[in-house]
Write a structure and sequence with these properties.
96 residues, 96% helix, 0% strand, rod-shaped
Length: 96
């Protein structure tokens, strides 16, 4: 094999080696990006779980509030009815 063929082969080999290094670096960058995205996804899942719990708690509080308002309305109507009865009794006593 003459020297020009060896030189050409050496240049091609250098290109291949450079390409391999480039691919290895790209692989390292992509692996790092995957780790970053996995960490971000885990954080988003944790946030989603927290938001779901908070939503359930809020829904529970709203249901309790609704129930308490209904109970308050029932009690208010009963008190108003008792007051009307007392007023009627007082009016009846006053007329005697």
């Amino acid at each position: 094999m003459d020297s020009s063929k060896l030189d050409r082969l050496a240049r091609q080999l250098e290109k291949v080696i450079h390409y391999i290094h480039t691919l290895q670096e790209e692989k390292r960058r992509l692996e790092q990006r995957v780790r970053e995205l996995e960490a971000e996804l885990a954080e988003q899942k944790a946030d989603m779980d927290r938001l779901r719990r908070e939503h359930a708690q809020t829904a529970n509080i709203l249901n309790q509030n609704k129930r308490l308002l209904e109970e308050r309305d029932i009690i208010r109507r009963k008190v108003e009815k008792m007051l009307r009865h007392l007023e009627a009794m007082n009016i009846g006593l006053d007329q005697r």
